[in-house]
Structure to design on (744 residues):
């Protein structure tokens, strides 16, 4: 599968690129600046470019799927202001629809929904990108992940519509594996799921959801 | 007998124990002290005089733990010691409430820029993660401290391939490329025990982008335990590369150079930190040590303080050429800078002949792990800050700087000190005692006695029981990674994208009165001093 990874230069992105390469996907890594290109190719991206909406269209047309790694930070607790680049996600969703990419996997965080119940509107719209994606004509999956850690991956997770422990952790390596594995798992098409460390092997958890 | 009688007897026994025994002991001491002829204090003040000797005996420990303030201990203060330990255990260097450095004192400072580099702009290679273990503190109370260790995928902070430092790039069949700037300085097996060497080898091998110098005691299986890159040191005693009669053995040298982990060789001139000939007591020359060093079992070794093979620059360079052509790997030399004329002669000959070492390890001569004589450790050779700039400048003057890399060593155990050495002209930095601390050294100062309480600088099996290789090797790894991360932090603050870019202009010396002067002042002063010596 030809996959575009947007936000590939982040902590999770590095692992996602490596995991996709291991699974023999052809990856185009989109990074924030020139300096990260070399590393992303080294990690296994077939090609790496600097983020530029204008130039993205031909790449999107040639791709089968998009993995979008947002800047939602699960460690940012209640009361923090918006940490997501809404404009960018909105643009990418529109571009994807225009270019005919069908599959769209977005990384979000378990805390992203906290704004739903926030009366102050201070942290409003952390979940706005999720809503934009649901409204679009795409085969979407929103994967909300728990608090990220630097521990090595276990290869096992728990997957649910809503994980009760809002502080549940997940190693970055496992989060990346979930994102990379989710591309062709029909069970999670058109859904929003939450993932944290658990006992079920990642691939199995995603197929049986 | 009645109960009263028993009680009286019990009372008598009790009194005799509590009163008579100590009194008899005191009388014994009194008589003994009074008659001895060794100590005048004890003759004049028997018993009471003992207090002096007791207090003197426990003084170093009391000072280190209770009375020295955090910044004043030597060779390393409590603060410096803890910096190393924390980096090894927690991979953490954060502090609260500011520095405790005395800013009124003179010292070197790194010049920061108004517009530092962003993390995204740094030229660092973190594509391969390292699977290490770090400690996490669960609770820190007055009498108890709970912590657990957990696995962690750590960023290694390697240099990018294009920034890697290469020893012997043009001169050798197999140049040594290293993707980090910090390695382990020369420490021999025998000086350190097998467990310490194994832990260091495994930790450095895990961290990668670093190297291990064997010390002159030869290459042992313990050095190879974790497959780190190795610089094998050759001292005047030729341990590990000698014939039975003490002559250099080309056959043994060739064997050593074919070991893939061995990346370079280093000739130790003037005994580096010790500036004297080595000495190993016969009882320490076990079968194992004898087979590693290629010497006779049980026989005391007294090493010469100079190579027999050469006593001038041309013959030394011939020897280096031959080592390089036989081994195919870079050959360097370790020196302590003292006489600038001798140094200048050598460097000018490098220019004339086109020959010479691939790297020069400049040691501050502060004396490290092994035993040396007090007078040599204290006052022979220039400390690293003066020596480094002088060597760097001289190599530039004679146009040979591009052929020779400089490795600096001498108490450079924290990222800021390393950065300052890099700015002064070092290409790489060697650390010995920092690594000893990372495997458990508590600075007891008894390396020369074989009774190291931490099981580091000892070959005693019982004492080494305290050192668990599996636990300590992660600390070694974390310490190196932490130093490299710190160097990137400092580079960013100085406005450069990786720590190989440090130059003289990035640091400055501040004196007691707040006046700052550039590093070039060291050079002017060194030249003036040398001129005065000549006149």
């Amino acid at each position: 599968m030809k996959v575009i990874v947007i936000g590939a230069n982040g902590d999770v992105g590095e692992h996602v690129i490596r995991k996709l390469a291991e699974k023999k996907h052809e990856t185009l890594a989109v990074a924030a600046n020139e300096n990260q290109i070399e590393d992303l190719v080294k990690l296994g991206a077939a090609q790496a470019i600097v983020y530029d909406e204008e130039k993205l269209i031909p790449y999107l047309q040639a791709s089968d799927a998009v993995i979008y790694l947002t800047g939602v930070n699960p460690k940012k607790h209640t009361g923090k202001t918006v940490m997501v680049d809404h404009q960018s996600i909105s643009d990418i969703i529109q571009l994807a629809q225009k270019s005919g990419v069908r599959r769209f996997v977005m990384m979000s965080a378990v805390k992203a929904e906290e704004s739903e119940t926030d009366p102050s509107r201070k942290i409003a719209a952390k979940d706005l990108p999720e809503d934009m994606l649901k409204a679009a004509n795409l085969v979407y999956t929103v994967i909300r992940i728990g608090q990220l850690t630097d521990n090595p991956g276990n290869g096992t997770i728990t997957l649910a519509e809503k994980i009760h422990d809002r502080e549940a952790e997940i190693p970055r390596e496992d989060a990346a594996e979930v994102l990379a594995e989710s591309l062709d798992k029909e069970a999670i098409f058109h859904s929003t799921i939450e993932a944290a460390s658990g006992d079920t092997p990642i691939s199995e958890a995603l197929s049986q959801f | 007998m009645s109960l009263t009688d028993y009680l009286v007897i019990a009372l008598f026994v009790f009194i005799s124990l509590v009163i008579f025994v100590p009194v008899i002991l005191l009388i014994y001491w009194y008589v003994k002290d009074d008659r001895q002829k060794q100590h005048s204090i004890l003759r004049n003040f028997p018993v009471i005089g003992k207090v002096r000797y007791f207090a003197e005996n426990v003084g170093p420990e009391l000072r280190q733990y209770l009375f020295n303030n955090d910044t004043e201990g030597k060779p390393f203060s409590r603060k410096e010691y803890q910096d190393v330990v924390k980096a090894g255990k927690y991979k953490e260097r954060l502090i609260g409430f500011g520095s405790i450095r005395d800013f009124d004192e003179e010292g070197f400072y790194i010049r920061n820029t108004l517009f530092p580099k962003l993390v995204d702009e740094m030229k660092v290679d973190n594509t391969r993660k390292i699977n290490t273990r770090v400690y996490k503190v669960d609770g820190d109370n007055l009498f108890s401290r709970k912590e657990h260790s957990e696995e962690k995928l750590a960023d290694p902070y390697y240099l990018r391939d294009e920034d890697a430092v290469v020893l012997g790039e043009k001169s050798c069949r197999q140049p040594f490329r290293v993707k980090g700037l910090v390695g382990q300085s020369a420490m021999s097996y025998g000086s350190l025990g097998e467990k310490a060497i194994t832990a260091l080898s495994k930790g450095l091998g895990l961290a990668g982008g670093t190297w291990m110098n064997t010390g002159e005691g030869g290459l042992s299986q313990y050095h190879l335990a974790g497959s780190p890159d190795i610089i094998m040191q050759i001292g005047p005693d030729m341990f590990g590369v000698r014939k039975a009669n003490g002559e250099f053995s080309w056959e043994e040298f060739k064997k050593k150079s074919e070991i893939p982990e061995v990346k370079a060789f280093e000739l130790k001139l003037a005994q580096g930190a010790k500036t004297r000939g080595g000495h190993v007591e016969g009882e320490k020359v076990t079968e194992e040590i004898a087979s590693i060093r290629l010497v006779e079992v049980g026989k005391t070794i007294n090493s010469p303080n100079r190579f027999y093979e050469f006593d001038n620059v041309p013959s030394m360079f011939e020897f280096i050429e031959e080592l390089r052509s036989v081994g195919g790997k870079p050959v360097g030399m370790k020196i302590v800078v003292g006489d600038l004329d001798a140094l200048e002669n050598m460097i000018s000959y490098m220019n004339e002949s086109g020959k010479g070492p691939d790297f020069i390890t400049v040691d501050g001569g502060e004396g490290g792990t092994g035993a040396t004589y007090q007078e040599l450790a204290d006052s022979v050779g220039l400390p690293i800050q003066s020596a480094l700039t002088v060597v760097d400048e001289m190599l530039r003057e004679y146009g040979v700087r591009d052929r020779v890399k400089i490795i600096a060593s001498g108490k450079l155990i924290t990222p800021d000190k390393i950065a300052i050495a890099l700015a002064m002209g070092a290409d790489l930095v060697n650390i010995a005692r920092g690594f000893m601390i990372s495997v458990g050294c508590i600075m007891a100062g008894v390396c020369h006695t074989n009774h190291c309480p931490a099981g580091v600088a000892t070959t005693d099996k019982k004492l080494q029981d305290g050192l668990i290789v599996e636990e300590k090797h992660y600390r070694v790894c974390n310490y190196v990674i932490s130093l490299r991360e710190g160097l990137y932090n400092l580079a960013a603050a100085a406005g450069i994208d990786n720590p190989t870019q440090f130059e003289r202009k990035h640091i400055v010396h501040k004196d007691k009165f707040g006046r700052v002067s550039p590093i070039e002042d060291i050079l002017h002063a060194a030249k003036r001093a040398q001129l005065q010596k000549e006149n």
Chain B has a mean pLDDT of 91.
